Amino acid sequence: MPADATKPVVILPELWQRPEMLSALQNRNVGQVFQLVRQYAGVSQTRIGTAVNLSQGKISEIMRGTIRVTSFEVFERVADGLDMPDSARLALGLAPRRPQAVSAHQHTSPAPPSDDAEPSSRTGPLTPYLANLTGASSRPVISGLRHILTGHIQAEAIMGPLLVINAVRDHVPVVGQVCRVTRGADRVEALNFASELLEFCGWLHQDLGDFTGATMWTNKALDYAMELGDQRVISYILMRKSIIATEAGDYGHGLGLANTALAHPEALTPRLRAVVLRTRAAANAHLGEAADSARDSETAFAEATAGTTQSENDRAPYCTPAYIAMETGATRVLLGEATAAIPIFEASRPQWGDSSQTRDHVLFLARMATAYAIAGEREQACAVTEEALSRTQALRSSRVAAQLTVLHGHLARWATDAYLADLLTRLGILLKSFSLPVPQPRGDR
C-alpha cells in the first residue's frame, strides 16, 4: 500500500460549500463527490478508497459512473470517511453526526407496553410532525434512526429488553410514515429499515416472554420484507418467526417456517444459512428428530465458520461458531444427551469473552451449568452457575430467567448441602429481581 494511503483525508471546509459539490451531494452523485475531492483537495483515489472502506476498483467504477451508489450504508461510510461536516451530510440526506432525536424513554426503565397497543395510539405530539414528513425530509430521519437503533441493539444485548422497548415502539409510526412518503431508492432503504426495526421490536417482546406480541411485530416486519422483495431479509424474518413458534411450543409450525426460510439457500450468506439451520435443528430436537437435528447443527457450525470470513453484511453478525456451539449444546440437552453436550459447550467457552453480548454469554453459562447438573457433575455445575451469577448484573431477560429456572430445578436435588442451599437462595433472589413474566420451561428437562 502506498505510504500516503495511511494518512488521514484532510479536506478544507470550503470545498463542501462549492456549488458543484452541493449539487453532487443533493443529487447523491458519489462519483462526482470523489472527483471533486480528488480535483480540489488533491486526495488520491487510493486514499479515498481507504478512507471509505471501498476497493480501488470499486472507487474507479463509481467515479466513471459504471456503478451508482444508492445504499444508505455506503453513503454513511463516505460521509464518515471523508469527515463531512453536518451541512454536507444533510445535503446528502444523512442525519448530523450526533443525532438529537433520542426519545426520553431511553433514560428510564419503563414497564413493557400492553400486547395489543398499536403504535398509532401512542403518536400524540408526533401527529403534526408525521403529517409534514416528505420524501426528501425523510432521508435524514432514517439515517438518524439507524444510529439510534444500533445503540438500542447494543444496550439490549447487555441489559435486556426493558431498557429500550418503549423507545423502539415510539419510532414505529415515524418509520411507517417514511415508508408511505418515499419513492425509488429511498423507499427501498425505508422498507429495509422498517423491516429491521419491527423485527427487533418482535425480538424485544420475545425476550420478555410475550410470544403473542412477538408474533404480531414480526408479522408486520415480514410485510415490509415481502414488499422489499429481498430474499435475505425475508429468510431472516421467517427464521425469527420459526424461533418464536418453537419457543411458544408450536414445534411443527416452527419446523415448517425454518424449511421455508431455507427455500433459497443459494441466495443467503453463510451466516444466514447457519442461523436458519440452527433454528431448524432446535425444532427437530423438540420433535424428537435426533438425526435431523444433529445434521442441521453440524452443517450450521460449518456455515458459521465460513461466515467468519464473509465480506457481505447481513442481519446475523452474532451467528458465530461459538453461538452455534451454544445452540447445539442446548439441543443435545433437549434430546437427553447432557453428557455429550458438555464437551461442545467447553470447546467454545474461551470464545465468550465479548462483554457486548452479555445476555448470550449468561445464557450460554446457564445452559452449560444445566448440562453439568443433569450429568451429575455437581462441582462443575456450581462453578459455572457462580460465573453466570457474577455476569448477570443488570440484565433483565425472560429467556435467561427461564433457563436459570431450569437450572435451579436441577440443582435443587443437592439442596441439603450447605453451600448448595446458599447458591440456590442467591439464584432464587436473582430470579425474583428480574420482575419479568417468566415462561414455563419447555426444554432442558
Describe this structure in words.
By secondary structure, the protein is mainly alpha-helical. The protein has 21 helices and no strands. Helix 1 (19-26) packs antiparallel against helix 2 and helix 16 (321-334) packs antiparallel against helix 17 (338-348). The longest helix has 25 residues, at 135-159. The termini are far apart.
List keywords for this structure.
445 residues; mainly alpha; 66% helix; elongated; disordered C terminus
Give the C-alpha Rg.
24 Å
Shape: elongated
| SSE pattern | HHHHHHHHHHHHHHHHHHHHH
Number of strands: 0
Mean pLDDT equals: 86
Oligomer: single chain
Low-confidence stretches: 99-121, 436-445
- Main beta sheet, described? none
Count of DSSP-assigned helices: 21
Class by SSE composition: mainly alpha
